[in-house]
Structures are given as C-alpha cells and as structure tokens.
Design a protein that fits this description.
about 240 residues, alpha+beta, three-stranded antiparallel beta sheet, 7 helices, about 30% helix, elongated
C-alpha cells in the first residue's frame, strides 16, 4: 500500500496480479465519532414502555459473553428508541460493553383473556384493553373461582382454574376494539350474585369485590361493595319475600 498524506489518496496493491492496484481516497472525517454516541450504564432504570430487541443480536451478545469468559451479558435498557447498555459482569475484560438499539416501529401488542371451564367446553377468548388489565382480570376470575363451591382438589375446580390465562390477540385491531370485554368498567360489574346475606358479606370481605344481591321471586336487587348496604338490603326486604 502507498499513501500520499498531502493528497489524502493511496493505492492498494492487488496480490497475485502484476501491476494491478486499487485506488482509494481517505474519507475518515465522514465516519461517526463513536465516542459521541456511547451511552453510559444507567444508574436507575425507569421505563414507561419496554423495548424489544432482535433475537439475532441478543444471541450475538451471548456469543461475545462466552468469548469474554462469562455466561451472559447484562442488559440495561434506556428507552424504546435509545440504545441499551450491555456489560459483561465478572469478566476480566471490565471495559468491554455493547450498545444495542431496540427494534423500532414495533406493532403494539393486543391482549386477551382465554377461559375454559372444562375439557368439553368451548374455549372463550375475549379482548382486554391492556396487558395490565388482562392480568388483573385473570387474577380476579381466579379469586372468584377460589370462592366457588368446588374444593381446590376437585378436578372440575382445577380445570376451571388452570384454563384462565393471558394470551396475545392474533386477530385484527378492528376485531379487538369491536369485541372489547375486559376494561376498567368490567371490574365494577359483579361476577357473583347471592340471595343469602351471610354469603354476600363473606364474598365482599374476603375478596374486596362487588356483588349483586337479590330477593328471589321479586324485583328487589342491589349491586354494591358495601357490607352495610348488603345488611340494610336484606333487612329491608326480609319481610317482603314472597312465600315459596
């Protein structure tokens, strides 16, 4: 190789080819100054949304870790559109690190709750407004099942309990919006109803839930979370119950 410092030009000799050269022009000034884009390891991670990374590059990080003598790298995300800092804890190469950009323009995931009462029942898949609401809905449903008359060791109870979980919605955005079921308002709707004052009170007390109370063969009913309102309801209508 020959290089003219003044002209910033050079020639690369092509091996095994007599008198053959490749000319080049020095253009270092157009390269990114990597020191300006390096982010430092964040001391505290506070994210409003979680970034997604290409698994191909995550696997490359694992390969790097093995070369550096550790099992894996430690990822410290800084945002959904900024580079994550990755270091290799306990490696003898303490200065080694990786910057990994998250995937951009990721389609927003849609969530749903899948329910089934036993092996013979049709699976029910209902959309949830968000991932958080989906998990809260599953927890509420399972708490309700725990309160049911079926014991925890009975097969039907176990099947009902295990067949309620959060899944990703694979349908269209329009269908998800149209069929929306689990939202914040759903938590104010009662899952159980009672014509027995003591059971209604126990349900509210143990689960901190809303309940529907009613008087059989009448139109009297109430939806409430208040133990006092339940007591007053049954006391007020106890003498108005129609004979069976």
């Amino acid at each position: 190789m020959s290089f003219d410092v003044t002209e910033q030009k050079g020639l690369l000799e092509i091996k095994n080819h007599y008198g053959a050269y490749e000319a080049f022009i020095q253009n270092w000034n157009n390269f990114t100054d990597w020191q300006k884009v390096v982010v430092s390891k964040p001391e505290k991670i506070e994210l409003s949304a979680y970034p997604y990374f290409d698994t191909k590059y995550l696997n490359m990080v694992n390969e790097m870790a093995k070369i550096l003598g550790v099992s894996r790298g430690s990822i410290y995300p800084t945002g959904t559109e900024t580079a994550a800092f990755i270091d290799f804890k306990y490696s003898e190469y303490s200065d080694a690190f990786v910057l990994l950009m998250p995937l951009l323009d990721q389609p927003e995931k849609k969530w749903a709750v899948q329910c089934g009462h036993d092996d013979e029942d049709e699976i029910v898949l209902l959309p949830a407004e968000s991932e958080e609401i989906a998990y809260k809905a599953v927890r509420r449903i399972k708490n309700d099942l725990n309160f049911s008359s079926y014991g925890p060791n009975e097969p039907r109870f176990k099947s009902r309990h295990d067949n309620v979980f959060v899944v990703c919605w694979n349908g269209s955005t329009e269908e998800h919006k149209k069929e929306m079921f689990y939202n914040q308002a759903w938590f104010d709707q009662p899952l159980l109803q009672f014509d027995d004052c003591a059971k209604a009170i126990r349900y509210i007390t143990e689960l901190d839930e809303v309940v529907r109370c009613y008087i059989p063969k009448t139109e009297f009913e109430i939806v409430t979370r208040s133990v006092d309102e339940v007591k007053a309801f049954f006391k007020r209508h106890s003498m108005e119950v129609l004979p069976s």
